[in-house]
From TrEMBL:
Keyword Ribonucleoprotein attributed: no
Gene that this polypeptide is encoded by: LOC125552388
Molecular function in Gene Ontology: transmembrane transporter activity
Topology of this chain in the membrane: Multi-pass membrane protein
Record-given protein name: Peptide transporter PTR2
Recorded coiled-coil stretches: none
One Pfam family cited in the UniProt record for this chain: PTR2
Compartments where located: Membrane
TM ranges: 119-141, 161-181, 202-225
GO biological process, one term: oligopeptide transport
Keyword annotations: Membrane, Transmembrane, Transmembrane helix, Transport
Family, as annotated: Belongs to the major facilitator superfamily. Proton-dependent oligopeptide transporter (POT/PTR) (TC 2.A.17) family.
Length: 246
């Protein structure tokens, strides 16, 4: 009679059974290893100690993403002087890219780097993209020109480039984080421990709560900051939050 379990699940069970009983409380029982390939000490790492940082990172990342997406059409039409059709097209192209790049992040995480390195590398790319948007809004040489009456001059090529390069670096960074972060959080709990399995379920509740908190703050507080102080202060605030998460 053939086994209905997948090869990966069978391997995990065999590793768990191979663990000496006297080491069960010291090491994880599901065969998990750290990013160096060493067995994991259950009481020294993982669990909520690591997940609190993961949840904080997710809040900052979603806050930055939604903070940009909720006002991107407005920025493109009022600051880069694009028409409504062009601004909407650029927005949907960027948003579609954000949902395609997770294929890159997932491939790198599963086949080459692992979740930890993938998140670290793409978080850095994300932060560099946010820095480019901040410079675009702060540095006079990179700022798009203001309208003069009813005449709105087109931005220079370098002003277009700095903004759109930063925008698509964010799309790439989000693609490396999105497919890894929830499963990386779940990895912090030992499947062979009934208490930690319960905590894993609670982690997913907090994870989706973090996503919604980031979206809520971006749609209220950051929009208010934008209206009161402008895009330059808002982008700077988002970049600082992303650096804190990284």
């Amino acid at each position: 009679m053939g086994s209905s379990l997948g090869g990966e699940e069978e391997e995990r069970i065999l590793l768990a059974r191979a663990t000496p009983p006297e080491n069960f409380d010291e090491y994880t029982g599901d065969g998990s290893v750290d990013f160096r390939g060493h067995p994991i000490l259950k009481h020294n790492t993982g669990n909520w100690r690591a997940c609190s940082l993961i949840l904080g990172t997710e809040v900052c990342e979603r806050l930055a993403y939604y903070g940009i997406s909720k006002s991107l059409v407005t920025y493109l039409s009022t600051r880069l002087h694009e028409g409504n059709v062009s601004a909407a097209r650029n927005f949907t192209t960027w948003q579609g890219t954000c949902y395609l790049t997770p294929l890159i992040g997932a491939t790198l995480a599963d086949s080459y780097w692992g979740k930890y390195r993938t998140i670290a590398v793409f978080s850095t790319i994300y932060f560099l993209g946010m820095s480019a948007l901040t410079l675009s809004a702060l540095v006079p040489y990179l700022q798009p020109p203001q309208c003069i009456g009813s005449f709105c001059p087109k931005p220079a090529l370098h002003q277009y480039l700095i903004y759109f390069v930063g925008l698509y670096m964010i799309a790439l960074g989000a693609g490396g984080i999105k497919p890894c972060v929830s499963s990386f959080g779940a990895d912090q709990f030992d499947d062979t421990d009934s208490v930690e399995r319960t905590k894993k379920g609670a982690f997913f509740n907090w994870f989706y709560f973090s996503i919604n908190i980031g979206s809520l703050i971006s749609g209220t507080v950051l929009i208010w900051v934008q209206e009161k102080y402008g895009y330059d202060f808002r982008y700077l605030e988002e970049a600082l939050l992303q650096e804190h998460a990284r």
